[in-house]
Amino acid sequence: MIPPMLAANPRLDRWVSFEPDGRARIAFGRMEYGQGIFTALAQMAADELDVPFDRLNVVASATGAVPDEGLTVGSMSIEFSGPAIRMACAETRALFTAAAAARLGCGPAELDVRDGAFVRGGAPTGLDYWSLAGDVDLAREATGEATLKTPDRMGVVGESWPRLDLPPKLFGAAFLHDLVLPGMRHARVLRQPSPDARLKSLDEDAVRSAVADVDILIERAFVALICDTEAKAARAHAAAEAAARWEGVRALDPALSEPAAIKTLPHEDFAAGAEPAGPSNRRRISATYGKPFLSHGSLGPSMGLAQYQNGKLTIWTHNQGVYWMRGIAARITGLAPEAIEVIHGQGPGCYGHNGADDPPIDAALIAIRRPGPPIRVQWRREDEFGHAPVGTAMVMELAAELDASGRLVDYTAEIWNTPHTGARGTAVAESALPGYVAPPRRAPQRLMPDGSRFSGGLLNATPSYEIAATRTLEHVIETPIRSSSLRSLGGAPNTFASESFVDELAEAAGQEPLAYRLAMLNEPRGRAVLTRLAEMCGWAKRWEAGTGRGLGLAYDRHRGRGAMVACAAELEVEAEVKLVKLWCACDGGLIINPDGARNQIEGGMIMAASWALKEQVKLGGAGIVSTTWDDYPILRFSEVPPIEIELIDTRDQRPCGLGEVSQGPVMAAIGNAVAHALGARIRELPMTGEKIASALLKG
Fold first, then answer.
1. Are 529 and 543 in contact (CB under 8 A)?
2. What sign does the dihedral 591-594-600-603 (CA atoms) show?
3. Average pLDDT, the chain
4. Of the given ranges (89-98, 649-658, 672-681), which has the lowest mean pLDDT?
């Protein structure tokens, strides 16, 4: 069977070839932006080819140079790109083995490959991939018939090979922000205060009094300030902000900053699962949880470069997909996709759909109107916080029925959220351009290959246990601000809510939280993860509630089919929450690179702790008003506790993506630990000092 990504890009030479310098060229369409995916996928290729890891040349991502695998999202690279590169390399190995056998006059089964060279009966044959490259035409489509290696025959997979992307980052050669091109010009874009705002006037003399040689580009409400240095562009932008007059600026209600307020907005409803439960004598329990709008909070603001000359547009970006970027640019500029080249570079990280798509479009729009020199657009922190898409607010109303033994037998999740991928394929500059037509307020439905409806808001909407009847009712809100995908979509907030609720159900049933979960979990791997976590965090010694110290845990199977993860949190609560230690036990199937896996899990745990305790986008005025780090605090390095991670490497299972698996269990573990410390529960994020005081007053 041909893996989906290979079926979409079937020619083998798009994935692998052998270069004259004795290296193997490996290409894949996933973007490296700090998650270590280039290294892990290269390990898979090295094993299937039997080529030393250090002889691989992993191709830099650019349109035309790599396969089109869409967007690098959803922690799906290992699960989808991995099988494609493995099969492409396995087929390549089989073709070259057949060519070697033909040369030697023997059967392919008599040959093996060691370090890229063919051996027969353990003895060298004098043939290798490079000497046979002229005999094998890889400009052919994959068949999916090659045999992949079994885990016991893998030598590169399973080892912590050094990250390919780190050396240039450590020595200052990797980041797109530092790229200097000959003749480069620097630009800043004056943003509309709100999408419908119209530019009434701009005092250009006032702008030129700040920077005499500024080139001011105005089309409708799109205003660009173009200079020969970044410092001048920043000064011109500041002057333009003061000199611009706008009309039609909206006024947002600050109350929309709080999750509950989104229930008042227009919405479309979708029901799924079991029929609503009828009257019963079972005990019924309900609770409501909330999560506010969140910023991606990348430490560096986004930027982009573009150059237009001789009818060709070249874009440099640090976004999540070069072909995706080309499609957006073609739609907005009107150029044919064939006239656009997109080159990927390293940036500050995406964590979903942040502002990375926007500055390249700003730069492209300017470059087409000012052909010749490269145009560099650097966003400010205020742009990133104020105009990049944000993760949606959510309200989760949960209801459960318990049987006579206290077991959870009926579960309903009613969820309010804006579309989790609603801003995909858009750019903030669009609303300023002539002829702009606003898209429909309701995002179109996304359908899966089987015809079912996909919604990021329903990921992990029900707990990962055996429950007789479950159902969901989703209310998709017309978003008041630009919202889109944030790491894990609705999965992490839903797990925070459901695993917090399971603790409440255990208490209502008069049962201990770990035992309550284990009684509903028949999956042996899941039980092993939970049991190991309990050993790691000393769960057996857990103390009584209400002492100011708390220990909580949570469990989740990512999206109901991926990695099985259990996390625990120990903390102290006074005026604020102080994290003491975090633990994670994870069964992610075959682990490709253990160090990379731990990095992904640990990063998710830290980010989730920050979401749980600190972060909230504030709305008001024309849009987002939390536009600085003072307005939008995140967890500081000094607040990050010791973290212990154990990988349960089940090598006989398929490898799972691990970039989004730890956030939900950590958020829930922190919530459960806070409830244990206080003897009172906080159901709405973030769990700030104000919410602690409120919970205690409510008793």
1. no
2. positive
3. 95
4. 649-658
Question: Please, which residues have CB within 8 angstroms of residue 89's CB and are 6 or more apart in sequence?
Answer: 15, 16, 26, 44, 45, 48, 49
Which residue in 357, 373, 379 sits closest to 430, CA to CA? 357
pLDDT at 594: 97
Q: What share of the chain is helix, strand, coil (3-state, %, to 5)?
A: 35, 25, 40
The angle at the Cα of 608, spanning 607 to 609, to the nearest 5 degrees, equals 90
pLDDT digits (tens, 9 = 90+) for 327-340: 999 999 999 999 99
Number of Cβ atoms within 10 Å of the Cβ of 106: 14
Say if CB 498 and CB 462 are below 8 A apart: yes
With H, G, I as helix, E, B as strand and everything else as coil, classify residue 55.
helix
**Distance (Å) of CA 276 to CA 269, 273, 286, 501:** 15, 9, 15, 20
Q: Are β-strands 123-128 and 185-190 bridged in parallel, bridged antiparallel, or unpaired?
A: unpaired
Burial of 153 (0-12, 13-18, 19+ CB in 10 A): exposed
Over residues 270-317, the pLDDT tens digits come to 999 888 777 788 999 999 999 999 999 998 999 999 999 999 999 999
Q: Tokens 């070069």 sit at which residue?
A: 322
CA 263 to chain CA mean position, Å: 26
Q: What is the pLDDT of residues 382-439, one digit of tens each?
A: 999 999 999 999 999 999 999 999 999 999 999 999 999 888 899 999 999 998 877 7
- Classify residue 325 by burial, with Cβ atoms within 10 Å: 0-12, 13-18, 19+: buried
Question: Model confidence over 228-263: pLDDT tens digits?
Answer: 999 999 999 999 999 999 999 999 999 999 999 999
Q: Alpha helix (H) ranges present in 265-346?
A: 322-333
Triad 555, 509, 564: Cα angle to 5°: 10
The residue length of the chain stands at 699
Radius of gyration of the chain (CA): 27
User: Which residues face 684 on adjacent strands?
Assistant: 290
Q: What percent of the chain shows pLDDT beyond 70?
A: 98
Name the nearest CA neighbour of 10 among 58, 83, 67: 67
Report the alpha-carbon distance of residue 6 to residue 14 in Å, rounded: 10
* DSSP element (H, E) containing 387: helix 381-387
